Amino acid sequence: MRTSWRIVLVHTITFRQARQWVPAVLAFGAFRGLTDGPLAVVLVVALVTAISLASAVLGWWRFRYEPGPTAIVVTRGLLSRSVRTVPLDRVRGVEVEAPPLHRLLGLVRVRIDAAAGSVQADEEELVVDGLPPVEADRLRAHLLVRRTVAVPGEGEQAAPAEEEFARFDDRWLLYAPLVGSYLAVPLAAVGALFRLVDELPRRWRPDLGRPDLSDTAVLAGVLVAVAVLLVLGSVVGSALVNWRFRLVRRGGSLVAVRGLLNRRHTELEIDRIRGGTVTEGLGMRWVRAARATALVTGLGDAARRGQLLPLGPRAEAWAVTGRLVEDPGPLRPHPPAARRRRLVRAVLPGAVVAVAGAVLTVTSGLWWLLVAGVVLAGLGVPVGLGRYAALGHVAGPRTFSVRSGWLVREQAVLQRRAVVGWQVQQSFFQRRQGVATVVAAVGAGSGGYRALDIGAADAVPFAVAASGRWAAALSPEPETG
Amino acid sequence: MHPDPARAPAWSPSRNAIGLWAVQGAVGALVLAAVVVALEVLLPLPTWLALLLPVLVVAEAVVAVGVAPRLRFRVHRWEVTDEAVGTRTGWLTRTWTLVPVSRIQTVDVTRGVVQQLFGLASVAVLTASSQGTVRIPHLDADVAARVADDLARRAELVRDEAT
């Protein structure tokens, strides 16, 4: 089957296929020189558009997708044909997105996540670009057919019951300036602007003169402007991505819809969810904000696709996580040795600088390094205590949880069945202090979740309580212990 | 010192592993010796350094050939039980790894060139997580083949979701 011909328009306008020709055209232009005036510019633009149109038509003409009973086959390529066959039982998720231009022409793009394990990230996805929404829905239903079969009853398949898990409140956008990744949005935009200005010919550049930064008023003005820009930019950036985020359960799937300009529709199987994480950055903790992410086995780009709540109050993040993974109970603190170790680690760099500074003060009278070292070491104390305060672990009847991190504090709640292995690590110093680090190997998320510096005697009991009797193979024999 | 957090698995690698590690150590020491000889010939070193370097090379060779292989042999342990397969490695930082048979995805046996000279093979037990990999180095080749067969067969029988 072919995609809609209207996608040719989209690809022509966005130079999707023609992008690779741009360097060649630029080189040609530079060689000829664009000195012939406006006519040459018009010619170049016309040429580029023609190339873009031609390649878009060819790309569309050579693209075929065939959803068969057991597999989907995608054929594409201008000169070298590529045929990819993905068995339906390898399809892990289907994402339907509608960028603005697509929406204008009544089209959507379907991304099929077919994680094959060892292939590169960009090959894990099949993209069918340019389908009418009705066709996309039919394709999605076809790809996920084995799931609907599992649900008994025809009526349910026709109109699956929806249950709302989370809905984004516009006021939560105000949290964005406190989140590192959203703050990066305006910074990246400013960076791109500067690059653009740099590449403009000198005579087109606005002549701003040289603002006198020694003037306090000007400096303050610039700082305020930068702060306002950062705050506004992060809110706008967050709004673009998270606009009217909504998470619903539909049959055996979780469906998330989000985005202002580019509406995304992500679907993941509840059966594959092995746990969830709630993360809070340093700034987010001030205002009790958090984000919640599901840990899903074999999900490509899991950090984005698994989002349960991109940004919101901590209570809301925990509520949505709790609907999917049982709460294992309150965390248990780690032994005092863990606090000592966190403190030593946080203070040590400053202490080293201070010692070096002290030597320099004596030998050459250079005092500022000593001061810097002492200040650094002093700042290490709250950091170390904060790190320790973040530590915690608990094993409940069906789930367990570990928490760590200071700059970004992450608590993972995992089902017992998520554990595919355990690692117990003990360094020389940990051995002397009677603590050990226990890592639960999990086939989802980051692959391993650590309980840092728990009491050495608690390590194996925790592993057994959090997974199963098999972990007792690690337990030290009582007679030699 | 506090008691260990976990038990040492029961079995050691093949005794031939000591020979293999000793050969690896000897090769490393030879390379180092060649570098030192080149330095002594090409650079005008101060006398104390010219005398110290050969002593260091000899010391390194003694440790790498005579001491380290035996130490490694004592440190590396592995065991397969009814339900799980586990290892312990590391001297300063010790690491115990345990994977249940029901979560095994693949079992690999590899035989390097030097390993073949000593009749050795390594077994790697892989799961859905990159951090849940159990590597058993330097077993007798027939032991490795038997262990891999046994694990693969049992994993097939008891596999639940394996993820």
TrEMBL record, chain A:
Question: What name appears for this protein in its UniProt entry?
Answer: Putative membrane protein
Keywords from the UniProt entry: Membrane, Transmembrane, Transmembrane helix
Give the transmembrane region(s). 37-61, 172-197, 217-241, 343-360, 366-385
Has the keyword Metal-binding been applied to this entry? no
Q: Please give the superkingdom of this protein's source.
A: Bacteria
Ranked from the top, the taxonomy reads: Bacteria, Bacillati, Actinomycetota, Actinomycetes, Geodermatophilales
User: What positions does the domain YdbS-like PH occupy?
Assistant: 60-143, 397-458
Please report the organism this UniProt entry assigns to the protein: Klenkia soli
- Return any one Pfam family short name: bPH_2
Automatic annotation (TrEMBL), chain B:
| TM stretches of this protein | 20-42, 48-68
Q: What is this protein called?
A: YdbS-like PH domain-containing protein
Organism per entry: Klenkia soli
Q: Which domain of life is it from?
A: Bacteria
Asked if the record carries the keyword Ubl conjugation, the reply is no
Return the InterPro entries for the record.
Answer: YdbS-like_PH
Sorted alphabetically, the keyword list is:
Membrane, Transmembrane, Transmembrane helix
Domain YdbS-like PH as annotated: residue spans = 74-149
